[in-house]
Design brief:
Number of domains: 1
Structural class: alpha/beta
Number of helices: 10
Distance between the termini: 45 Å
CATH topology: 2-enoyl-CoA Hydratase, Chain A, domain 1
Largest sheet: 6 strands, mixed
CATH class: Alpha Beta
Strand content: 5-15%
CATH architecture: Alpha-Beta Complex
Length: 261
């Protein structure tokens, strides 16, 4: 582990702490960081000394989603020679890993960042942190898992309100509606998460992992039904004039003017 790595991985007893480490970009994922995060999660799951994984972000944020600066003027993260989007790989890994994953949402979790947090098994969030999916606000379809996990957690009606407006909510509101497990004061978040991780690590490992795997079958079924289609829609939306206008408007600090093209 080096200080300039985009994903940090350290073990605290039986807990593997994985930290997205791009605080200067609010821990947004560029393609290289996307790959490193997948690798770190898989390594922790295969580590015989690890019983629980904690996922968090460096600095003041959890993860700002896909790196919009990297997207500007580009097609997508994926190569055109792939049939399935690379965006699916990370979601599949989060759902397939056997060891419990606790998301420690220390700051903003937006777009893909929100999906990553919500696909974890238990989500503890700082009460003043914010979470939301703002794909539509940059002219994109909420394709990388938001259309899967938000309806499962809070129901289709509420999910539509949040996914179609891109509204951000704080940890208190997210916990009250059941979107996340618990909201705690930011100063207490790390201690609360590590206490939970140690409680989980003390459970019989096979029973813990098999229970998680059983629950995740229903989530995987929904992902299999929705994810490829929503990712394809998102890929198409990356080619629209409205998406490019949204990126330009954001860079220039002005409202976007959208034509439906």
């Amino acid at each position: 582990m080096t200080s300039d790595a985009t994903v940090l991985h350290e073990r605290l007893g039986q807990v593997s702490m994985i930290t997205i480490n791009r605080p200067e970009r609010r821990n947004a994922l560029d393609p290289a960081t996307h790959l490193e995060l997948r690798r770190a999660l898989q390594e922790a799951d295969l580590d015989p000394a690890t019983r629980v994984i904690v996922l968090t972000g460096a600095g003041q944020g959890f993860c700002a989603g896909g790196d919009v600066k990297e997207m500007a003027g580009k097609d997508s993260y994926g190569s055109k020679d792939r049939v399935l989007s690379v965006g699916r790989d990370l979601i599949d890994i989060l759902l397939r890993l056997e060891k419990p994953i606790v998301a420690m949402v220390n700051g903003a979790a937006v777009g893909l960042g929100a999906t990553i947090a919500l696909m974890c098994d238990i989500v503890y969030m700082a009460d003043d942190a914010r979470i939301g999916d703002r794909h539509v606000n940059v002219g994109l379809v909420a394709g990388d898992g938001g259309a899967v996990v938000w309806p499962l957690l809070i129901g289709p009606g509420r999910a539509k309100e949040h996914l179609l407006t891109g509204r951000l909510i704080d940890g208190r509101e997210a916990a009250a509606m059941g979107l996340v497990s618990r909201a705690v004061p930011a100063a207490e978040l790390r201690a609360e998460v590590l206490a939970l991780a140690e409680e989980l690590a003390a459970q019989p490992p096979y029973a813990l992992r098999a229970t998680k795997a059983s629950i995740n079958k229903a989530i995987q079924a929904t992902a299999n039904q929705v994810l490829d289609l929503s990712l394809a829609y998102e890929h198409l939306s990356m080619r629209t004039a409205d998406h490019q206008e949204a990126l330009s408007a954001r860079a220039e600090g002005r409202p976007g003017v959208y034509t439906g093209q």
